[in-house]
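re: ur msg from earlier - yeah i can do the BES complex, just paste it... oh wait u already did. ok heres what im feeding in:
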Amino acid sequence: MQTIQEYIQQNKQRFLEELINLLKMPSVSADPAYNQDVINTADSIRESLLKAGCDTVEICETPGYPIVYGEKIIDPNLPTVLVYGHYDVQPADPIDLWDSPPFEPIIKKTEIHPEGAIFARGSCDDKGQMYMHVKALEYMTNTGNLPCNVKFMIEGEEEVGSESLAWFVPRNKEKLANDVILISDTGMIANDIPSITTGLRGLSYVEVEVTGPNRDLHSGLYGGAVANPINILTKMIASLHDENNHITIPGFYDKVEELSKEERAEMAKAPFSLEAYKNALAIDAVYGEKGYTTNERNSIRPTLDVNGIWGGYTGEGAKTVIASKAYAKISMRLVPNQEWQEITTLFKKHFESIAPAGVTVKVTPHHGGQGYVTPIDNIGYMAASKAYQETFGVRPIPQRSGGSIPIVSLFEKELESKTILMGFGLNSDAIHSPNEHFGVWNYLKGIETIPYFYQYFTELSK
Ligand code: BES
Ligand code: MN
Ligand code: MN
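and the outut:
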């Protein structure tokens, strides 16, 4: 029987070409200008799944972008793996900061990826990682190595909050029934230190608007005599953290799960170099909540960050003006057991309450989602761990991530199964940033590791 290693050796050029073609499609879900490209990308995923051996593949219409659903059921008595991924990507801007055009993929060597990395928007998040599953399926069906049933559900709105998927899942519980959900949309510590993501943070995303006078004013004639919305907004935002970088919203920490000393000691064993971390970001110090390490700050602790802020005059030169309005987009990353709607409400109440007389404040909630933690004493995690040991030669480290895939907690609620997060990206792959890339080695390693997951999961299910 042909091994996955042999199969990759023979087909790797084609595997790369196919991914490159997929990356040429600008499936930006946030920007309506790309509407047709997003739809075309769904069609292309459908073709790929059919070619890889799915028996049926449907384009499932939703109130938003379609969900591509495919399956290969070999025996209803065998376990079923449900693969989730997303074919949409983040906007590419600022385009000027890319060294090569975001939708013209090229392979370049880097220090971390001496075998080359594919540079393109979506290469790592998530087209490259999602496509590893399509190629792993191709191997398993072509060589008669598929040990169980498989379902694919690939959505087109992950980067904008998965609203349509949240609509789709409860309506299709039977179709989506499974024994484990498998996702590659996260990262690992390093190519020689594989890790499996055991936690995701939740999210509450809001936009705020501060309104002062009914029109923009001359900053000389009126300055000092009326509330300047930008001054006020920045003051309000600054007050959201205290001197220890704790968040000041009343009730914000009430439900935060506190880890035990033992759990924190276990976490601290994961290899981490503060010097390398600072060097990679060209910063001279890290910054964050007092009493917690960098790895704790970005995984087990909740945060509040301004993602964008605007108002007034930002063009060339100087214009003397007091703007009528100021705006900011604010995200809060949440941890178990914070409820995202509740946090959104707490934020709104607090933010409105700290507005001084002279301005009015409007808080508009965007999207959100619950955090997720997966235990490591289940057969899904065990199967993944064995798969990594097989292909990396070392046991992977369980690690909580700071990122969010809000739909995962909904999967658990609606489909009652655990999600296993087998991510093969690196933090340095610049997802959501200019020059996003995905290591060729990582891409092929993912394809190599996935079939072992199927094998061990099926064996452990017996
Ligand atoms: N794939 C990421 C999430 C991620 C990346 C988790 C790396 C862990 C490690 C996903 O596409 C993403 O970007 N999610 C968004 C949330 C969404 C609601 C826009 C995020 O985390 O900002
Ligand atoms: Mn993603
Ligand atoms: Mn993303």
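cool cool. Residues 125-126, 158-159, 161, 185-187, 200, 203, 367, 401, 403-406 surround BES (ligand 1) (CB under 6 Å). ping me if u need the other ligands too
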